[in-house]
Structures are given as structure tokens and as C-alpha cells.
Amino acid sequence: MFSPELLGATCDVLVDLAAGRRALEFAIGTGRVGVALAGRGVPVAGIEMSPAMAQRLQEKMVPGSAAAGIELVMGDMSSARVEGEFGLVYLVYNTITNLLEQDEQVECFRNAARHLAPGGYFLVEVAAPELQRLPPGETARPFHVGREHLGFDTYDLVEQRLTSHHYRFTEDGRVSRFESHHRYAWPAEYDLMARIAGLERFARWSGWDRAEFTAASTSHVSVWRKP
Questions:
Q1: What's the CATH code of the domain at 157?
Q2: Cα-flanking dihedrals φ and ψ of residue 17, to 5°?
Q3: What is the pLDDT of residues 65-124, one digit of tens each?
Q4: Contact 121, 225 (CB under 8 A)
Q5: Which of 112, 139, 159, 162 would staple 182 via disulfide (CB 3.0–4.6 Å)?
Q6: Angle at 130 between CA 125 and CA 132, to 5 degrees
Q7: SS3 of residue 121 by DSSP
Q8: Are residue 104 and residue 162 in the same domain, yes or no?
């Protein structure tokens, strides 16, 4: 996720949409994208709920660095406010799915719209549910099988919930387990959330290369515009 190629393509899109205006990252985390974007000359602010991640970002804010000018606000991305208006609000790497209720996701869209100047953009990068790959009656799908790591997702098709399970194995035979919980949605549902927030769809790509989104796409980068 830190490869120069991926971050370069990501920032190319974000720089174009920001068009010289301020950008706000929801769930900025340790600054993987925010610091790279600031390094491209875009004024960046971020909202983050995790103190541990915020501390990692703050450690990068040394004088003279690209991170030094980032404005950080602690809080929930569905409700926290940052002063001023922005030309771009963005949310990357499936983080919208960390909001586990539909109402919370709707409030996230509304909060983005509140921060946007007229003509500004809200961008979300998120995986597309792979339900068509599930045989009837099955709820689990592996996404990585290796010597040191096993990962698989389980789906609750009624509640639109997904749990990612990670098992890591060490040479001495120890096993560590971690799981994360998500609420998935179809692209059309995100479009409806945007309409509720007063935004209109601008673009939908299958990735940061701006390739066409199709039924075979496993993720999408979607952009909505504030009229």
C-alpha cells in the first residue's frame, strides 16, 4: 500500500480533483496518503479517531517535512468538523465500511457535504462485494493463503456485514488471530447516500488508473460533486 506507483496514481487523481484547493481526509490514519498528497503541494487536513494512529502521524510532523503542515482533528469522520471549506474530501482503502450502520454511513456523506465548497468533490475508494463468487449456501471466501498468513472473509448476507479473519503463523509454531468488522454496500447504495447528502455522481472508476468500472471490478473509486 506504500508503493510509489500506487501512491503516485492515488495522488494524481486527488491533485486533479483538489485543483489547488484544500483537501480533507476522513480517517487519515498514519498519513499514508495524506503525507504524500501534502508533498504534492495540496493543503491537507485530516480527521482521525484512533489515538495510536494519530500519534504515528504526529511523529511525522517534523519541521520542514511534508507532514508538518497537516491539520489534524480527533473525532469520528461521520460527525467531527474541521474549520473552513474544502475543494476535496476523500476516504480511501475501504474505511467507509468501518461504519457498521447504514445511518452512520449516510452521516459520513452528509459530513463530507458540510465541509465541501460549491463545486467540491467527495471521493471514496472501497471494495465491491464479491457475492457473485459465493456458491449457494456458502458464506466464506479466502482472499489470501500463504505460509505465514491465512485470510478469509465471512459474509452476513442479511445484515450486509463482512468479517475479515486473519491468521498469522510464525516459525516456532505460534498463531495469532485478528478480525475486523465491516458493512458493505453496492455502488448504487452509495449513490443514494450521496443524493441524500445533496451530492451528484461525477465519476466511478475501477481503480486509481481511472479504468472503467464493470461488473467484473473488485473495487471502485467513486466521486460525487457538490452542486
A1: 2.20.25.570
A2: -70, -40
A3: 999 999 999 999 999 999 999 999 999 999 999 999 999 999 999 999 999 999 999 999
A4: yes
A5: 162
A6: 145
A7: strand
A8: no
